[in-house]
Amino acid sequence: MRLCLVASETAPFAKTGGLADVLQGLGRVLHKQGHDVRLFLPLYQRIENGKFDLVPMAGAQDIDVRLPHRSLRFSIKTVELPGSEAKVHLIDCPELYRRKELYTDDGDEALRFGFLCRAVLETCQRLQWAPDVVHCNDWHTALLPLYLKTVYAWDRLFARTKSVLTIHNIGYQGSFPDSQLDTLGLGEQRAHVHHGDLRDGRFSFLKTGVLHAHKLTTVSKTYAKEIQTAEFGMGMDELLRTRSSDLLGIVNGVDYADWDPANDPLIPHPFSAKDLAGKAKMKQALLERMHLPYDPRAPVFGVVSRLTSQKGFELFADSIPIFLQREDMRLCVLGSGEDSHEKYFQWLRDTWPKKVGIYRGYHDELAHWIEAGADVFLMPSRYEPCGLNQMYSLRYGTPPLVRKTGGLADTVQAWDPATRQGTGFLFEDFSSQALAGTLDWVFRTWRDQAGWKRLIQNGMAMDFSWDKQGQEYIGLYRSLVG
Ligand code: ADP
Ligand code: GLC
Predict the structure, then answer these.
(1) Tag placement on the chain: N or C end, fewer CB within 10 Å?
(2) Distance from the CA of 384 to the center of ligand 2, in angstroms?
(3) Ligand 1 within 6 A of CB of 362
(4) How far is Cα of residue 130 from the mean position of the Cα atoms in its chain?
């Protein structure tokens, strides 16, 4: 199949979260299965500054796109997806993408991503490459199905092209004033945009995609059900219920080429389920790096996260201090985001300088060290479409403590000391008390080191590889292409 994957992030080129990992993993596996897969994303400033071998693509240079009030020119630079020969086409339009951050609050944010959708289709036209499926991801790419049906419908190249939209996070919908529809060349397509939004003078990329994509997916079975409820739907549940039969949950995969402690180039002490000696060394190395005293008996709790309200860290306020006071434990935090969360973690660090270490910012290598060196991984998410970190931590022998929601509910099983089954610790109520009760459960389990070893090994034996998960996407594409 000719498969066109479009997203605002793809690792290792541009990443702020799990979306980038998913595009990389899915791209690799689809290519490995013999499909003609091409990935598209903007050529951001940070990619230009990176050490990538970007090659201008013949036949796709200086393409002009006429918009109602102006014209924009772009070219394609191509690079191979590392660890694969899949082609990544980068949309080079300095006017839109040469900025410090991937996402901005600038006045042309709608144009930046609306243009991404158009540039993909314009490139297909130039190359005379007719995709069987265009697979869009999140709001940034969600206008593409509507463009296909309207502005580009005249071109027979796309006569058989089907569209899939994957919702990685319904918390980000791309909502803008409806005056922007003109800017995007969709002024005549108002009838195809969600009417309720238009009444409020707005339109949303994500809703438009949900209305027009042939199939919808999200990144876990549980989240597929949750987003159809008022509690999790963020105002889109009613619309999603109307498309229920076209909405599928496919749990994300893990790329064990990047995330396996037995051959992870980013950690100095490799280890495996059979030989955990390296894990003990990683614990020591991690604590040294975070300037914390090492004691093999004190469990290390790890956090690697975007610090946003989605991730549930406000539950720490009335739980974690009790344990930091009472227990010999360590807490290693890597993350950045909302100021209030950053300040809170800084306060924990200042109050318990021998127990808490933080790194504010984004740090790929440290993320791998925490997965490897911690004893427990914390993800108390308010909601979690899938979550990758809990799956990484399972493979790194770091049982996750998670809230039972979305993909966390689908990938972590509660530890049961009686049967010695299970891979981690779960709680349901979004409350500090529920989290505290679960921390108690962790400390009880930790005291039984034989049981703990079994818990680690259960987790390390789990297989979430893309080879398996990719098959579900291939099945979906086939059902569309026939
Ligand atoms: P989300 O996409 O909601 O952020 P996921 O668990 O799906 O959550 O994916 C998060 C990804 O981003 C993981 O690969 C994780 O290691 C990475 N990550 C998050 N924050 C940081 C950070 N501060 N430094 C390095 N990597 C990070
Ligand atoms: C989103 C979600 C996360 C998911 C990731 C990749 O950022 O928050 O749960 O794992 O996308 O699908």
Answers:
(1) C
(2) 7
(3) yes
(4) 28
Q: How far is CA 369 from CA 6, 282, 286, 328, 374, in A?
A: 31, 7, 6, 21, 8
What are 416's two structure tokens? 């049961």
Span 107-136, pLDDT tens digits: 999 999 999 999 999 999 999 999 999 999
Residue 79 near residue 54, CB atoms below 8 Å: yes
Distance 88 CA to ligand 2 centre (A): 21
pLDDT at residue 69 greater than cutoff 90: no
Closest ligand 1 atom, CA of 252? 7
For residue 195, give both structure tokens.
Answer: 């009417």
Confidence of residue 163 (pLDDT cuts 50, 70, 90): very high
Q: How far apart are CA 425 and CA 446, in angstroms?
A: 12
Find the mean pLDDT for residues 338-358: 97
Ligand 1 lined by 334 (C-beta under 6 Å)? yes
Cα 170 to middle of ligand 1, angstroms = 17
Q: Is the CB of 138 under 6 A from ligand 1?
A: no
Using alpha carbons only, give the angle 402, 410, 433 rounded to the nearest 5 degrees. 25
305 has which bridge partners?
335
Query: Which residues lie below 8 Å from residue 250, measured CB to CB, with a gap of 6+?
Result: 217, 218, 219, 220, 469, 472, 473, 476
- Ligand 1 center–CA 389 separation, angstroms: 7
Whole-number average pLDDT of the chain = 97
Q: How confident is the model at residue 157 (pLDDT cuts 50, 70, 90)?
A: very high
Q: What share of the chain is helix, strand, coil (3-state, %, to 5)?
A: 40, 20, 40
In this prediction, residue 318 carries a pLDDT of 96
State the closest ligand 1 atom to the C-alpha of 334, by its place in the atom list counted from 1: 23
pLDDT at residue 423, rounded to an integer: 98
Domains assigned to the chain: 2-253+466-481 (3.40.50.2000), 277-460 (3.40.50.2000)
What pLDDT, in 10s, does the model give residues 402-454?
999 999 999 999 999 999 999 999 999 999 999 999 999 999 999 999 999 99
pTM beyond 0.90, yes or no: yes
Q: Model confidence over 71-101: pLDDT tens digits?
A: 999 999 999 999 999 999 999 999 999 999 9
- Measured CA to CA, the distance from residue 454 to residue 423 in angstroms comes to 9
CB 412 within 8 A of CB 390: yes
- Alpha carbon dihedral 411, 414, 417, 423, in 10-degree steps, equals 20
Q: Is 388 touching ligand 1 by the criterion CB < 6 Å?
A: yes
Q: Ligand 1 pocket check: which of 10, 21, 395 to mutate, most ligand atoms within 8 Å of Cβ?
A: 21
Residues lining ligand 2, Cβ inside 6 A = 17-19, 22, 168-169, 219, 252, 384-388, 407
Cα(112) to ligand 1 centroid in Å equals 24
